[in-house]
């Protein structure tokens, strides 16, 4: 996996690639010719127009098949904007772009410089180079919103005065619409994964989120009411150690929905993931367009044993990195663990993502409050990663976080993890010497 910097580029393998930006953002894409202009509105892929030849947007994931782009397409520019229009990106968690290749292999990650007042950010572009395609990291911000960006790229932005079509007949929702569970477990069995069970809390959260998406006519991890799918799940009382979601519009029944998930690499990986033990699915109709909006949630409950296992794996992976670089392993300090866990939980409870809490406390303040008497304190935080392997890999690919992990003076460590909030997962790694 390559950690990109602004301007950095990477050759892409042949086949389908997916681009994912988790968090409280809307993802969109502009398909252009060599002159950097679209040919028409159909080249603007966004939540109200989620598909074009060779490109499909599903929630926070853009799936690209460069070979199937329209004739003459030379570039696909990936754009991120706040899910709540007009919100400066500087008020939100920093966007992180993950690019996955065939087979679900993570190819690249790009964490751009943190934006400030910009409301739109050009994150990356996939562009033709000779017979192949490459990825380039951008990180260019705009302050005049998606409409201005669309005009810059040649998209005509007009008000749609066409009356909405009459809603199509839709099946009645249920706790297991159309035998969803049997379809899912059959696919999981074929992949060698254990079956999942339906959970009423996941179904309730899925129904609430599908209804919110249908009401606004748009897909998104965070709906127009400002609530993320993860916040809906934790509001039901379900706490999780790992979570996944499918947010899809269009399928007319569970068979179509599951078929879509199995055709695309990242959704298929989620459906097959052996870590998940419970699921819930629901859909709701947009009565203006007749489209169905689906939410499927996948999770593994958080128990004290699971929390201990997760923290232990983060420590083990961290110490493996230190050993690989000739450094002694870190010892778990229960007081640092208490402070780290409290910070992860607090970031969800008070909806912030920072080393500085809303009350102004810093890592060393929190460590001292937990009773730790270390002379030196360091902290790594992360959000959105779904496993210990993913979060440690992300830290090691970020120079500042890597420096903390490989700091020779640190002797002790504490790990915090909590699920929920806008990004789904919040991790804290607290070091002491």
TrEMBL record:
Domain of life: Bacteria
InterPro entries membership: CAP_dom (IPR014044), CAP_sf (IPR035940), TerD (IPR003325)
Region described as Disordered: spans on this chain: 157-180
Chain ranges of the TerD domain: 25-153
Domain SCP: 181-295, 315-431
UniProt-recorded name of the protein: Stress protein
Organism: Streptomyces aquilus
